[in-house]
Each structure stands twice: as C-alpha cells, then as structure tokens.
Amino acid sequence: MKLIGLSGSQVGSKTRTAMNEAVKKVNEKYPGIETDIIDLAEYDMQFSDGRNYLDYEGDTGYVTKELMEADAIIIGMPIFQASLPGALKNVFDLLPVDAFRDKTVSMLITAGSAKHYLVADLQLKPILSYMKAQIVQTYVFIEEKDFHQKEIINTDVLDRLDRLAEDTVVLTQTFEQIRENQYDF
What we know:
This protein has about 180 residues and is an alpha/beta fold. The chain has one domain: Flavodoxin domain (Rossmann fold, 3-Layer(aba) Sandwich). It has 5 helices and 8 strands, in the order E-H-E-H-E-H-E-H-E-E-E-E-H. Strand 1, helix 1 (about 15-30) and strand 2 (about 35-40) form a beta-alpha-beta unit. Helix 1 (about 15-30) packs across helix 5. The chain is globular, with a radius of gyration of 16 Å. The two termini are about 30 Å apart. InterPro entries: Flavoprotein-like_sf (IPR029039), FMN_Rdtase-like_dom (IPR005025), NAD(P)H-dep_FMN_reductase (IPR051814). GO terms for molecular function: oxidoreductase activity. This is FMN reductase. Pfam families: FMN_red (PF03358).
C-alpha cells in the first residue's frame, strides 16, 4: 500500500506540521506501508490547462503521477478566506475526474478559528466525492490555539490524528479486500 500525505498550501507551517504528525503515526502503527509527503510549498506547480495529467513534466508531472499511483491520500489544508487554498484546487483541476476512484482519502484541516469547521464538509468533501474518492467521513480540525512553536500541543488533536491514520489505513485495506473478493456473474 502506498499512502501520500498532501500538504495543500504554498505558505504557512501548521498544515505541514499536522501532516508530518499524521504520517508519522501511520509509520509507527503500520511500518510496512510506503509513505511520502508532498508539500505544495516545495514544488513549482503549473496551472491546469486541460491537458492529460501524463502530459505535464517537472514538478507538476511528479505530483500528479504520485497522487494517481497512491492507494490512500491524507489531504491537509489550511482555510483561507473561508475556502480551500487555490494551490490545492489547482491540483484537483490537474487530475482526471475519476482520479480518486479506488483510493481512500482522509482530511486534516488547519484554521485560525473554529468558525471555519464546515469548509471541509461543504467544499472539500463534494470535490472528493465527485472525483470518486472513498472518503473517511471524520476529519481532524485543528485550530491556531492547538499549536505552539511549530508543534501540536493539544493531546486531543494528537489522539484524533492517531485515529485518522488508523481509519485511513483500515478503510483502504477493507476496500482492497472487497475488490479482491468480487465475483464476476
């Protein structure tokens, strides 16, 4: 199984801090799983122009191909202007409509205030559903007050990240078993 942590912003450190923690928890509980983190802040991404994702080269080609090859994806995103970051939306635009078919996708959200907790439900989940993802329904919402000096200080958040890691892996494994056991009638 291949799991990618996608840190979906070009600025800030909180989402990457949370993503590092989530992927660390996957590695601790499931050492046989291949994991990687793609932080959009580290890549020079082209804007989507309608081409097939295989036609992009450089960083854009690398990121899209890695996501397409993943079995599971943890998407981390900050909330900007009560919405998802444009960099993350661009990644979705670069991929085909059914890019997340047979993939489990979970989410962690960072925000400055609790007022934005519904952005994942109202904006991100519909996009993931449209792209055919198997969505882990519960996500981890992390506020500014849960961080101190690029560390998560809220033990409840750490516990929820641990559960998110477990739910992501278990759901991925479950769907893999279901697909393997399907019968052709």
